[in-house]
Automatic annotation (TrEMBL):
Residues 189-209 are annotated as: Disordered. Residues 120-174, 213-278 form the Ubiquinol-cytochrome c chaperone domain. This is Ubiquinol-cytochrome c chaperone domain-containing protein. GO terms for biological process: mitochondrial respiratory chain complex III assembly. InterPro entries: Ubiq_cyt_c_chap, Ubiqinol_cyt_c_chaperone_CPB3. One of its GO terms (cellular component) is mitochondrion. PANTHER family: UBIQUINOL-CYTOCHROME C REDUCTASE COMPLEX ASSEMBLY FACTOR 1 FAMILY MEMBER, UBIQUINOL-CYTOCHROME-C REDUCTASE COMPLEX ASSEMBLY FACTOR 1. It comes from Schizophyllum commune (strain H4-8 / FGSC 9210).
Length: 374
């Protein structure tokens, strides 16, 4: 048990190290001067600027120390000076605090914030893998901007963001593979986007629940680490190679490469039959261990597979869908580029939230109304 836990932590550490990126060292080390009221923002003022209808994670209650310091300005002044003396306003301690806030309030909210688009327009199932894919996309988009912040801040913030991402993954994977009657809160917050298939039904008599071995959780973390690294490399290349390459990367990594082996159309006069086929990505190191021709017809219960012949018309929405996704990625990266570096270091994370891929309210208002004749 202890050895498995240590191995899992080493895996998370290696993932964070792999996410580090090289920076060109500037002529001088850039230092940012934080505001005097850092970490003591008024939550009630921040809530006034929130958009109705958007998903926001539950607010973390302020600590007794924070409440006391807000009520005693002189003690707050001395405490901030002590923070500065002890080095809590330096790059790494600041990144540790901000990494959690940026991940929780900017990236991890996207599956729940646009659940209708991901499930109905992208045809993604309500699984943990779909949740991970969506969050992975937005973590990558945010790291693209954080890499441009001069060192050591940019490097430390990317590291902290990835640390938080994989700590949250560990808690959520554990919740799926080792369910409990009273599930603990993940590293961030509970998500209604995906369904836990191992969750015990409410009201049922309590029995001993199945528990996956810890090594299986470690194996799943390795799998998600490989997916993160492959997705990052693919999207980094697409970012500089053009929209066609980005659309291809989105199709492979986000939409499950549906239709890669061809689109099967329904035969005239033939009754609908059960059909299943999915795309297989064999491991690069040992591709011979997987029989692709056989495995592509085996249901892995992921929910991401080719559309059956009776639903082949869904492929017609893919060109417009990939256009909207590529436009969204380019637009949001440009928006993040225009935001000053200081905003990522201590501005309210809610002001950095990603926009919508599709604005359904605008589409509904743009549709012409049917005229009625008496």
């Amino acid at each position: 048990m202890l050895a498995s836990s240590i191995a899992r932590r080493e895996l998370l550490r290696s993932t964070a190290v792999a996410g580090r990126v090289a920076h060109r060292v500037p002529a001088r080390l850039v230092h940012f001067k934080p505001p005097n009221d850092l970490d003591f923002k008024n939550l009630e003022e921040a809530k006034k600027n929130r958009k109705p209808g958007d998903f926001y994670p539950p607010d973390r209650p302020p600590t007794p120390l924070a409440v006391y310091l807000q009520q005693h300005p002189r003690a707050k002044q001395y405490f901030l000076k002590l923070q500065s003396i002890l080095g809590f306003q330096r790059s790494k301690p600041m990144a540790g605090r901000r990494g959690l806030m940026l991940y929780e309030r900017v990236c991890a909210v996207k599956p729940d914030d646009e659940a209708k688009f991901w499930k109905e327009d992208c045809y993604l199932p309500s699984t943990f893998q779909s949740w991970f894919t969506i969050v992975n996309l937005h973590v990558w988009m945010l790291t693209v901007r954080l890499r441009a912040i001069p060192p050591p801040y940019g490097r430390d913030f990317v590291q902290a963001l990835l640390d938080t991402f994989f700590y949250d993954l560990e808690d959520r994977i554990t919740g799926v593979l080792q369910p409990k009657y009273n599930p603990p809160t993940p590293y961030t917050f509970h998500s209604d986007f995906y369904h836990n298939p191992n969750k015990p039904p409410e009201g049922a008599p309590r029995t001993r629940l199945g528990r996956a071995p810890d090594r299986l959780i470690t194996r799943q973390l390795k799998t998600h680490r490989d997916q993160y690294m492959g997705f990052t490399l693919s999207m980094d290349a697409a970012l500089v190679q053009g929209d066609m390459e980005m659309a291809a990367s989105v199709w492979r990594n986000l939409l499950g490469a549906r239709g890669a082996a061809g689109v099967v159309l329904p035969a005239p006069g033939q009754q609908p039959q059960k059909y299943y086929r999915r795309s297989i990505n064999p491991p690069i190191s040992e591709p011979h261990k997987i029989d692709v021709e056989r495995e592509q017809w085996v249901d892995d219960h992921s929910g991401v597979h080719d559309f059956p012949p009776a639903e082949a018309d869904k492929y017609l929405t893919y060109p417009e869908l990939m256009l909207d996704l590529v436009t969204y990625i380019r637009r949001e990266i440009k928006r993040l580029e225009d935001i000053p570096d200081e905003a990522f270091l201590w501005q309210d994370p809610d002001t950095l939230r990603f926009g919508k891929v599709r604005n359904y309210s605008a589409q509904a208002s743009a549709q012409p109304k049917k005229s009625t004749t008496s």
